[in-house]
Structures are given as C-alpha cells and as structure tokens.
C-alpha cells in the first residue's frame, strides 16, 4: 500500500457522481497537485482525507492504517471515533475561506490545538507559534483578532496554525481562490517556503498553475470523478497527453 | 401616597426584580442542556429536547403558576409561592431560551467546525472551544430580549397572589379606588424597569464584543 | 389523591364553553392586532414628526410593559372616563393593542425588505404616493410577513389565560367558579391547563406547517 492509499473510492451527491471507483496512491513526502474542472472531485478527495466527507464505498488508508474503517479480526468494520481521530491526527488542512476562529487572537488560534490536542505546554506552544508567525511574516500580529487582518494575512495565519499541529500530510484546498492575485502571491510565497524547508506530504487543489509547477512533483488531472492523466508537472503542462487535459489547461491559462 | 403605600410598592418592585432574575437564571440553566440536546447527534437526546421545548413553550406562565399553586397541593406538594412563581417563569422561558441556544449554535459557520476537525479537536472540544464561544456572543441580544419578556411575565404571577409589584399595586387600588393613578403608575414603573434592564443588557453586549 | 373521572366529565362541558370564549378572544384580538399593527407600522414611517414620534413612543411603551396591567387599565380605568367595556371586550382590546405592537415590527421588517429599486421604479412611473403603497410596496411586504405574523397568533393565544384577572369567562375563571361550589381544585385547574396546552400544541404544529410551506415557496 502507498503512504496515502485510495482504493476503489466512490462518492455521489444525489444523482451526481463525484468520484467513480477511484484508486490511486501518494508516496511519503510527495507534493501532488490536483487539477481539473470544478465539480470533478478534487476537493472531495481532500475532504475525505480530512474526514469531513464520508466515502460511499471503498477504503482510504494512511501509512497502512484505514481512515474510515478498522480491522476486527479479518473483517473491516466502520471506524469508531477514537480510531478515526488517531489516524486523522497526521493530517491537517488549510481552507479556501481560512476558517480562523474569530473569538481568539492570532496567537491563540495557533496554540489552541497544540495545547489542547497534543498536550504541548503552553509556553512551549507559544514560542513555537511565534516562530511560525515569523516564518509567515506576521510576528507583529500575534495579539490581533482575525477580523483585524486582511484576507492574505488571515490565510498566512491559517498556514501557521496548520503547521503548528506538526502534520505529516498538509491539504491545501484552493487556498488563494478567495484572494486578489496580488495578495495571493504573498500566500504562495509562504507555501513555496514551506515546501522548500519541510518534508511534509502535500496535496493541493489550486488554479495557480505556475505555483503548482513550482512546488509539486506530480500532477493529477481529474475529470468526471476519474483521474485521466497522472504526470510530472513538466510533462503535464508542456505536453499533456489527453485531449481533455489540453482543453482544460488552455481555458485556465487564458483566464490569467 | 402614604409611606406605607410607598413601602409596599418598593417591596413589590424588589420582588419583581428577584422574580425576573430568578426566572431568567433558571431559564438559562435549562436552556444550555436543552439547546445542546436539540443539536445533538443522538436521536434520543434530540427527541427529549424537542418534547421539552414544545411542552413548556405551549404551557403559558399563568397556566403553570395556576397549576403549581392551586392543583399541586392536592397531590401533597405545597410550594413556597415565590418558588412556584420562579419555577413557572423559568420552565416557560427555558423553552424559549433553549431555542436561542440552538439557533445560535446552528448559525456558527460550518467552516468553523471543519477547522476544528482539521486541528483534530474532539467533537466536544470543538463545541466547547470553538462553537460555543462564538454562539454565546450571538445569543446575548436574544437573551436580553428574553429578560424584558421575563420582566413582563412576572406581572402574571400576581394572579396567584405572589406579592410582587402588580399584586401590591392591586392591594393599594382596593384600598383607595384610584384606578387610573395606580395602574398608570404601575405601567410607568414597569417601563422604567424595562429601560434599566435594557441598558444593562446593552452594556453586557458591549463588554463581550471581541473586535 | 385520585383523579375523579366522574367529576371531570361533569365539569368538562363548562370548561369547553370557557375554551370557546378563549378562542373567540384569540381570533378577534388577533384580527385587531393585524389591522392595528399595520396602522402603527405606517404611522411610524410617516414623515410628520408629530405622528411618528408619539406613535413610536406609544408602541414601545405598550410592548415594554405587562399585558396584565394594560388589561386592568382598560377594565377599571376606562369606566371612570365613561367608557365601560364588558370583560370580554376589554380583553379583546387589550390583546389586540398589545399584539399590534408586535405585528407592527413584523410589518416594518417586511416593508424594509422591499428592495429600494421598487421605490425608485414607482417614482419613475409617477405613481401617486398612496398608489405606491397599495399596489407596489404592501403587496410585496405583507406576504413575506406572514410566517412571523402566524407565530404571533400562537403567542397571543398563550396570553389569553391572563383574562382570568378581569373575570372573562375563560377556562380558569370557569374553573374557579366550579371550585367555589365543590372545593375540589385539582380536576378543574388541571383540565383548564391541559385544554390550553392542547390548543397551543395544535396551533404550534399548524404554525410549523405554514412556515414550511412558505420556506418551500421561497426556494421554489
């Protein structure tokens, strides 16, 4: 089994088939970009890994541990709360709408999970949070509320908050789609930095193709719930094999 | 107005304030568990919450007070009148306030719960640390309205002879027969108390604002 | 103590008569609240300060003070001014007036919910002011107010037991008269309470249906 392993995963919302018997794997430390038209199932992949959306059928495993199931003897049964939490603890996600906690100042947004989930001592968590804030260039904003920050700043705090739980797998769901292009650039710079300085496994859904080319070492093209092309970025962007991929890339590049 | 009458009115007003605060305190104690039960993943708890809200929203304060004071003694339960009043006020307002709790919890954006999951909070940690602190702030204005409604509702328990402001006003009226002065004065008195409560609620609202 | 079923059956017709009175008070009081509330809402939007200020103060004052004392005022003070109302009439006026202050807020929200473009369009078409209200604004504002207005019919019904204080022959008044003869309070009080509760539950069930239907229409 791969480090992240999707095996025959299907999902439908009503009549709409979002994922169709999908199998693929991601190796430890890989940076994978998921591209494709909207509604093709990319975000659903991330949400399933984060246990926010439940697959209808199939299995998902992280490092040989099933996320939605647990073994009982030879059988696979639906996982209990504790099992899911344990497996999930290696994953975290940055959202399109940031989802910072508006009732907490920036610093506490970052320390809340380390202190109360991982059990890190408070002063240690705060020192680490300040390091992370410095990394995203916001050390001066520790005592601000999220609503006092711009969208780009909020997203950078959200990245720091995600890194604070020391994930093995970082999911990035269209993290710059809600931002102006100029502001988006500063967020992407931070993520380039993260990619360079850590060995975290990354799955990202993005429309920022140049960024995808810079940070990822593999690109998956989704269409109608299936992966229709799987290639390194140079190949995917320079000489796509599939007609549908060529059409999609042409339409995205024209937009910019 | 004689000083005895003034004393009666002041004592009544004090009892009215105590009934308002006591009833509201009981309502809040009820509102959180019932409101949480209403949004629970557990079907049974949801059903219990639903039954409580329907039953005690349906049972008006006066209906409850009448029953506590005139019917319950036949079953061998003689309640202290002020206690019966607070019970009737609190049980009824508890149903309304638990709907406030439920509405505020459901109004917290789903992204907040998703972020809590992404940081691997347990569901109860997510509720306690992320959802409730945001929901409580949204509840405050509605709770403020509930306090005013509770103040108005306290007058009703005069009907079961609890000596609060309205009841004592009636006593004075039966003595001097000056209906316009007594009842007009009572209305103004309640208006002033409502104004004071409203001002206090606004101050609390400003205090809990975080940004 | 046992519940005396024979006694209960004997007094049930009397209590049901009381319930009928309570329902009459509800329906007439509610209609009054609907009409009067619209008048209040329009008056508060008036550009003439001598209309909107006093009406605004009156509405806030009535809404902020207890219905029970307003009932006392109507029933005991008005006769001194030469206007004696029967208990039921005083009760209906009190309920209608009190709830008009609530329905006027609903109308106000409904009126404010009409998009400003509608006013602009009415001006652009040179409609006279009265016409703007009757054919453009109110036909849009009133339907969107209906779910909230429905809820106030239920709230009004739940305040009807207070009419016991001015001797309207609703179930508790009837119950008290029965107790004065039989000295058995448990059955009459319990039954009167249950009658009120039962009607309130039915009304709240119907209210949910109305609300759901309107939500369905809004999304359709």
TrEMBL record, chain A:
Task: Give start-end of the signal peptide.
Answer: none
InterPro entries membership = AAA+_ATPase, ABC_ATPase_HisP-typ, ABC_transporter-like_ATP-bd, ABC_transporter-like_CS, Ectoine_EhuA, MetN_ABC_transporter-like, P-loop_NTPase
Q: Which Pfam families match?
A: ABC_tran (PF00005)
Which keywords does this Swiss-Prot/TrEMBL entry list? Answer: Amino-acid transport, ATP-binding, Cell membrane, Membrane, Nucleotide-binding, Transport
Annotated localization: Cell membrane
- Which parts of the sequence belong to the ABC transporter domain? 4-249
Which SUPFAM superfamilies does this entry report, sorted A to Z?
P-loop containing nucleoside triphosphate hydrolases
**What is the topology of this protein in the membrane according to its UniProt annotation?**
Peripheral membrane protein
Instruction: Read off the PANTHER family from this record.
Output: AMINO ACID IMPORT ATP-BINDING PROTEIN (PTHR43166), GLUTAMATE_ASPARTATE IMPORT ATP-BINDING PROTEIN GLTL (PTHR43166:SF9)
Please state which protein family the record places this protein in: Belongs to the ABC transporter superfamily.
The GO terms this record gives for MF are: ATP binding
Q: What is this protein called?
A: L-cystine ABC transporter ATP-binding protein YecC
The record ties this protein, via NCBIfam families, to:
ectoine_ehuA
Species name: Kibdelosporangium persicum
UniProtKB/TrEMBL annotation, chain B:
Q: How does it sit in the membrane?
A: Multi-pass membrane protein
The cellular location(s) given in this protein's UniProt record come to:
Cell membrane
SUPFAM superfamilies assigned to the protein according to its UniProt record, in alphabetical order? MetI-like
Q: Which Pfam families match?
A: BPD_transp_1
| Chief place of localization | membrane
Q: Which domain of life is it from?
A: Bacteria
The coiled-coil segments of this chain are none
Alphabetized InterPro entries for the sequence:
AA_ABC_transptr_permease_3TM, ArtM/GltK/GlnP/TcyL/YhdX-like, Ectoine_EhuC, MetI-like, MetI-like_sf
Keywords attached to this Swiss-Prot or TrEMBL record, sorted alphabetically, are: Amino-acid transport, Cell membrane, Membrane, Transmembrane, Transmembrane helix, Transport
Ranges for the ABC transmembrane type-1 domain? 13-205
Span-the-membrane segments of this chain are 12-37, 49-70, 179-201
Which PANTHER family has this protein been placed in? Answer: L-CYSTINE TRANSPORT SYSTEM PERMEASE PROTEIN TCYL, MEMBRANE COMPONENT OF AMINO ACID ABC TRANSPORTER
Q: Which family does it belong to?
A: Belongs to the binding-protein-dependent transport system permease family.
Question: NCBIfam families in the record, alphabetically?
Answer: ectoine_ehuC, HEQRo_perm_3TM
Q: What is this protein called?
A: Inner membrane amino-acid ABC transporter permease protein YecS
What species is this protein from? Kibdelosporangium persicum
Upper taxonomic lineage: Bacteria, Bacillati, Actinomycetota, Actinomycetes, Pseudonocardiales
Automatic annotation (TrEMBL), chain C:
Q: Which InterPro entries match?
A: AA_ABC_transptr_permease_3TM (IPR010065), ArtM/GltK/GlnP/TcyL/YhdX-like (IPR043429), Ectoine_EhuD (IPR014341), MetI-like (IPR000515), MetI-like_sf (IPR035906)
Chain ranges of the ABC transmembrane type-1 domain:
19-207
Extract the CDD domains matched here.
TM_PBP2
Topology of the protein relative to the lipid bilayer: Multi-pass membrane protein
Q: What is its main location?
A: membrane
Entry annotated with the keyword ATP-binding: no
TM spans (from-to) = 20-43, 189-207
**Keyword set, alphabetical order:** Amino-acid transport, Cell membrane, Membrane, Transmembrane, Transmembrane helix, Transport
Annotated signal sequence range: none
What are the subcellular locations of this protein? Cell membrane
User: Per its UniProt record, what NCBIfam families does this chain match?
Assistant: ectoine_ehuD, HEQRo_perm_3TM
Family designation:
Belongs to the binding-protein-dependent transport system permease family.
Specify the protein name: L-cystine transport system permease protein TcyB
Q: Which species?
A: Kibdelosporangium persicum
């Amino acid at each position: 089994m791969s480090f992240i392993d999707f095996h025959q995963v299907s999902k439908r919302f009503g009549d709409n088939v979002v994922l169709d018997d999908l199998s693929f794997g991601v190796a430890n430390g890989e940076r994978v970009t998921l591209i494709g038209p909207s509604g093709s199932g990319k975000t659903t992949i991330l949400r399933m890994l984060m246990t926010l959306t439940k697959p209808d059928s199939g299995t998902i495993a992280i490092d040989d541990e099933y996320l939605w199931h647990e073994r009982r003897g030879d059988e696979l049964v639906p996982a209990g709360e504790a099992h899911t939490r344990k497996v999930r603890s290696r994953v975290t996600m940055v959202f399109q709408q940031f989802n910072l906690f508006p009732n907490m100042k920036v610093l506490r947004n970052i320390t809340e999970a380390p202190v109360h989930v991982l059990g890190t001592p408070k002063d240690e968590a705060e020192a680490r949070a300040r390091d992370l804030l410095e990394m995203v260039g916001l050390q001066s904003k520790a005592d601000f509320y999220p609503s006092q920050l711009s969208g780009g700043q909020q997203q950078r705090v959200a990245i720091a908050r995600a890194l604070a739980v020391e994930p093995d797998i970082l999911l990035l769901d269209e993290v710059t789609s809600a931002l102006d292009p100029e502001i988006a650039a500063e967020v992407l710079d931070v993520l380039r930095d993260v990619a360079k300085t850590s060995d975290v496994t990354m799955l990202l859904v993005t429309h920022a193709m140049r960024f995808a080319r810079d940070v990822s070492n593999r690109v998956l093209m989704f269409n109608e719930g299936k992966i229709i092309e799987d290639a390194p970025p140079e190949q995917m962007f320079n000489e796509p094999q599939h007609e549908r991929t060529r059409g999609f890339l042409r339409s995205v590049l024209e937009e910019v | 107005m004689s000083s005895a009458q003034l004393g009666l009115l002041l004592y009544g007003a004090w009892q009215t304030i105590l009934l308002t605060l006591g009833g509201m305190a009981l309502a809040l104690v009820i509102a959180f568990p019932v409101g949480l039960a209403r949004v629970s993943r557990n079907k049974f708890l949801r059903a219990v919450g639903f039954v409580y809200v329907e039953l005690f929203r349906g049972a008006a304060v006066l209906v409850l007070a009448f029953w506590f004071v005139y019917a319950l003694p036949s079953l061998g339960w003689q309640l202290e009148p002020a206690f019966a009043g607070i019970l009737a006020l609190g049980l009824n307002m508890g149903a309304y306030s638990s709907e406030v709790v439920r509405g505020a919890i459901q109004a917290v954006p789903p992204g907040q719960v998703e972020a809590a999951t992404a940081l691997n909070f347990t569901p109860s940690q997510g509720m306690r640390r992320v959802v409730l602190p945001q929901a409580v702030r949204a509840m405050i204005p509605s709770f403020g309205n509930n306090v005013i409604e509770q103040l108005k509702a306290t007058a009703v328990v005069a009907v079961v002879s609890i000596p609060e402001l309205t009841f004592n006003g009636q006593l004075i009226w039966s003595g001097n027969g000056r209906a316009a002065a007594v009842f007009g004065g009572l209305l103004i008195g309640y208006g002033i108390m409502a104004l004071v409560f409203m001002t206090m609620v606004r101050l609390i609202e400003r205090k809990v604002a975080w940004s | 103590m046992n519940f005396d079923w024979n006694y209960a059956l004997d007094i049930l017709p009397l209590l049901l008569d009381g319930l009928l009175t309570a329902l009459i008070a509800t329906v007439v009081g509610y209609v009054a609240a609907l009409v009067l509330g619209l008048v209040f809402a329009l008056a508060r939007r008036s550009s003439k300060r001598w209309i909107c200020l006093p009406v605004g103060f009156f509405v806030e004052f009535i809404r902020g003070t207890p219905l029970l004392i307003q009932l006392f005022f109507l029933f005991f003070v008005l006769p001194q001014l030469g206007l004696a109302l029967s208990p039921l009439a005083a009760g209906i006026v009190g309920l209608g007036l009190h709830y008009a202050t609530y329905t006027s807020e609903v109308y106000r929200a409904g009126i404010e919910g009409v998009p400003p473009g509608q006013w602009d369009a009415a001006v652009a078409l040179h409609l006279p002011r009265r016409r703007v209200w009757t054919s453009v604004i109110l036909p849009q504002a009133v339907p969107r107010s209906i779910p909230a207005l429905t809820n106030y019919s239920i709230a009004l019904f739940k305040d009807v037991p207070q009419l016991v204080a001015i001797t309207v022959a609703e179930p508790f008044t009837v119950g008290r008269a029965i107790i004065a003869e039989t000295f058995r309070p448990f059955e009459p009080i319990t039954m009167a309470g249950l009658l009120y509760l039962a009607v309130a539950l039915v009304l709240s069930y119907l209210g949910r249906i109305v609300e759901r239907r309107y939500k369905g229409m809004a999304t359709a």
